[in-house]
Amino acid sequence: MAIDRVPALKRCRSLGLEPAILGRARQSKRKAQRVVRKVSEYGLQLKEKQKAKFIYGVLERQFRNYYEKAKTMPGVTGENLLLLLERRIDNVVFRLGFANTRRQARQIVRHGHITVNGKRVDIPSALIKVGDTIEVCEKSQSNEFFKMMKETNNALSAPAWLESDQANLKGNVVRFPSRDEIDVPVNEQSIVELYSR
């Protein structure tokens, strides 16, 4: 299994992202002046794709598969692509506030701490549907990490398309998000143009 081991803050700097997008509170200490170079249209499109892949923690083959699936769905391809990425179980766990970052959410799912409709799920790329109930396993709720999550309740406020019950570490998918509710700084049209070259 391929793993992206590039340090997150270093990648944020290179892509021009704020670490807060990933759920990290720490700001980059480096404020060095960079030489601004003229970037081609292809370079801009590639950067947008790299941003999306980095934010959601997806590698190239899987991202390409999401794009191919988004093309076949009714509606705008770019918005469909972001919708598919938002529907990943690791992203939903992050959005519900059960993890501080998407990487942490991915690990929580991978270790089998999450159930969907009462069934344990350990595949971070599993897609949720409207009406699904996502919760932390009863056995896992006695874990120190999840106890701390309950007590501090320092979770991000769940978006409107999710219903969160932080006290019971439970959440429901009310509906799928619209493009306005997806707050990632990515120009999805550039990604579509890149893949349709």
Can you describe this structure?
The chain starts with 7 loop residues before the first helix and ends with a helix. The protein has a five-stranded antiparallel sheet. It folds into two domains: 8-25 and 38-85 and 183-195, Ribosomal Protein S4 Delta 41, Chain A, domain 1, CATH 1.10.1050.10; 88-173, Structural Genomics Hypothetical 15.5 Kd Protein In mrcA-pckA Intergenic Region, Chain A. The chain is globular. It has eight helices and five strands; from the N terminus they run ααααααβββαββα. It has 197 residues and is α+β, with helices and mostly antiparallel strands.
List the uncertain runs: none
Mean pLDDT across every amino acid position: 86
Largest sheet descriptor? 5 strands, antiparallel
SS strand fraction? 5-15%
Q: What is the number of helices?
A: 8
User: Termini separation (Å)?
Assistant: 29 Å
What is the fold's blueprint, element by element?
Elements: H1 8-15, H2 41-56, H3 60-72, H4 77-86, H5 89-96, H6 102-110, E1 114-116, E2 119-121, E3 133-136, H7 144-152, E4 162-165, E5 170-173, H8 188-195
Antiparallel strand pairs: 1-2, 1-3, 3-5, 4-5
Helix pairs in contact: 2-8, 3-4, 4-8, 5-6
Can you describe this structure in just a few lines?
With 197 residues, this protein is of the alpha+beta class.
